[in-house]
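Our platform keeps sequence and structure together, in a single record for each protein. Such a record has a labelled line for the sequence and another for the backbone structure tokens. Nothing more is needed to write down the fold, since each code stands for a local backbone conformation. For reference, a complete record is included directly beneath this paragraph:
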Amino acid sequence: MADIDLEKKFDIHEIAKNKLAEIEKFVCNIYCCHSTGCKSSGSDDILDLIKSIVTEHKLEEKIRIVATGCMGLCAQGPLIRVEIKGQQDRLFKRIDLNAAKLIMEKYVIPALDKEVAIVKELEPFVLSLDLPFFKKQEKVVLKNAGHMDPEDISEYMARGGYLALEKALKTMTPAQVVDEIKRSGLRGRGGGGFSTGMKWELAAKVPTIDEKFIICNGDEGDPGAYMDRSILEGDPHAVIEGMMIAAYAIGATEGWFYVRAEYPLAVERLQKAIKACKKNLLLGNNIMGTNFSFNIDIRLGAGAFVCGEETALIHSIEGARGTPRPRPPYPTNKGLWEKPSCVNNVETLANVSKILLKGADWFASFGTETSKGTKVFALTGQVEHSGLIEVPMGTTINEIVNEIGGGVPQGKKLKAVQTGGPSGGVIPAQYMDMPVCYEELKKVGSIMGSGGMIVIDDSSDMVSLAKFYLDFTVDESCGKCAPCRIGGRQMLALLDKINRGKGKKKDLELLRRIAFAMQKASLCGLGQTAPNPVLSTLKFYESEYTNKLVDGKE
């Protein structure tokens, strides 16, 4: 991690200028994906090998090696991108040690002096940057991920980092910051979709007696979802900067990151980023020479899905059992340690600095009338190009699955798409042209959620799928309220009975009645949305249920 010389005047503009000049000196930049996915496939050893080859050939002044965040196309990892001055960028997929050695010796080193073609041995590893997967995305939150060292604060500054914080602290009042976020139309990216600016406004209006808190919800628990993890791994300073701007806007003096302990790399990079901010006077007292003082701490979640709900999360930070409580009062009035608190999701905060730098109108130019900006999705399941993507709100399912994702592989057909994780619903193939935004998803019985999107092909059994998701939410229920605790288990027992071919027609009606009770009477979002996979599969694929019934076979 590059530290800033405190003997010199602290000036982020000067730091950025110097870092850009330093980067410009290199003929070649090699970006090695160093996210959780690629590390699990051996990118550590690949990185070490590339470094040793560069050292062996005494090319340290020509080649810059960067361990970077997620490049997006996770199923093709480990990934390496090579950028050589005056030549087209090259992306290499599924790299092993032999491939890394070949890339260095047959391409990178010869190409330092002249443009060279890709030799035959390397062709299987080449991945085209002209794929729709890359071309059809709109990167806002993920703009830096995969393009910089997430552990180097000066490199973040070289890409405009902390300029938004400087703008807020030195040229804007807290009320002006809130107004800019309100005008942008940014809504909570954790699943609720509540107006971020309105939430900040409510928190700002609460009188500060001694303390206010800003909390970042990084307790991402949906099966198949890894958006927040990747953002924290690839661009932690963007989330920190967003949190600091939010703190200034609402009058908070302390921030808390709540991140699940199953994300060790995200936690490690977040810790390093916070340490770098403290060392370089971006946290503490009188930040940037202003009256704004702020500090950040981290709390690790133990993997309870219910702790994604803000009041359960708050209880967990306090050291209590992670269970939700009735609202009102809302956390903006009575939150952490009974004090005003504002809870925002990782992706929500990562948008903030971009909005302040480029303006509310710029952000609002993406998306639909009521769903502004872009959204990060973890595109997984039965799709050719699975990975992390970012698209404008309102992009259709067809564009996401068939163009960006490359469609369903192995000649199979698309059956449905599941959005919103275990709390979401399935969207049948006939809705492929539906724009993905909060309101449209709700119309078909699904939700945006935090951004999981699972592609389902025509070989999948929808009753088993609904049972899988309900089994997850039943297991993760905190048990505090009866509708969720009892209703979920009753529904799961009925699904199991149907799946074993022992169900009857009356069981389908009973499923619907219990689901309705859970939706109306459960204490928090977990119980209220747990029936969604069952209800949506019943709505669109009822024949798959009736074909398994004792008295309902067609």
Summary: The longest strand covers residues 374-381. The domain at 374-457 is CATH 3.10.20.600 (Ubiquitin-like (UB roll)). The radius of gyration is 25 Å.
